[in-house]
Amino acid sequence: MCHRPDAADRFPVDWLRLSEHRYLVTVDWPAAHRFFAPLPGGRQDPMLVAETTRQATMMLAHAAYGVPVGDQFVMQELGYRLLTDEFTVLAASGPIDVVVDCSDVQLRAGRLVGMRVDLRFQRLGRVLATSMGILYCTSARVYRRLRGASMDAAAGAVPLLPAVPAHETGRTDPADVVLARSKHRPGWRLRLNTAHPTLFARPNDHVPGMVLLEAARQAATALTPGHDFHPASMRVAFHKYCELAEPCWLLAGHETDADQGPVVRVRGIQGEEPVFTATLGTAVRDDG
Question: Which of 157, 181, 159 is nearest to 169 (CA)?
Fold first, then answer.
């Protein structure tokens, strides 16, 4: 129900209804993972918060709201924020309690079509992070009509572009790099390794959202002098499907946000139209 075929990539392990639209989800965060690996200095990978948000939301949509397994999900927005400087492997691995509040729950003929989720991650009574997401659901029949020829085009082979050096993106394994050099435009081109066991764990007719989140993180890291960028917060808006068969260009720049201070803004462009916009910050805000 988490849409992860490999047990090593599944983090929710159980759930309990607390009230009509509030749930407690127990997750198990790894101390080591093939992709969501610990960062230098013993830091836990904050992208675990984003991935767990995605998985827990889909699990509850199926288990608590009865969404058929064959239905499709569209995540319109996703964001997280760390609430402690001690987001380390020691402090943020093992059993994690996640309280999930679902709001703006939209039902049509008793069927879930959309909702907002707000998550609070705690371990041993200590709040580690919060996150949010806005999700929409569609039946397999409607999804096929919506995607049309794009589903057929996605069946073709996707060329694997030469990767940017892994250290520039904050990765150690070149197979995990999702950035390629851009020869004729600013920024980078999205690199798709469709054989990647975590990013492309199952067949897709479009680029998975987690690939775009990772692209935003890697672009921010590549932009940062010394390539040491720790995204304590991220907020992503997905504007349209990112097609596998078309080039996607990534642009990143430093900006100042009124609430977060210095941030990196990353945009994904395909066919001269925005695919996603991401804002990443390094400041940890402990607001309780």
Answer: 181
| Two tokens, residue 91 | 């402090």
Residues 6+ apart with CB under 8 A from 7: none
Spatial separation of the C-alpha atoms in residues 16 and 46, rounded to whole Å: 25
Q: Report the run of H or E that residue 107 belongs to, with start and end.
A: strand 94-108
Cβ contacts of residue 162 below 8 Å, gap of 6+?
180, 181
Determine contact, residues 283/232, Cβ cutoff 8 Å.
Answer: yes
Q: Which pTM was predicted?
A: 0.95
Element (H, E) at 219: helix 209-223
Q: Where are the domains of the chain?
A: 1-147, 150-288
- Residue 199: which of 35, 63, 48, 42 has the closest Cα? 35
CATH number of 150-288: 3.10.129.10
Q: Please state the length of the chain.
A: 288
Six token digits for residue 191: 């690199």
Which CATH superfamily hosts domain 1-147? Hotdog Thioesterase (3.10.129.10)
* pLDDT tens per residue across span 19-77: 999 999 999 999 999 999 999 999 999 999 999 999 999 999 999 999 988 888 999 99
Alpha-carbon gap, residue 140 to 248, rounded angstroms: 26
156-202 pLDDT tens trace = 778 999 999 999 999 999 999 999 999 888 999 999 999 999 999 88
What are the backbone dihedrals phi and psi of residue 156, each rounded to the nearest 5 degrees, phi first?
-75, 165
Asked whether the domain spanning 150-288 has the same topology as the one spanning 1-147, the reply is yes
The C-alpha angle 132, 44, 288, rounded to 5 degrees, equals 50
Q: Are 80 and 118 in contact (CB under 8 A)?
A: no
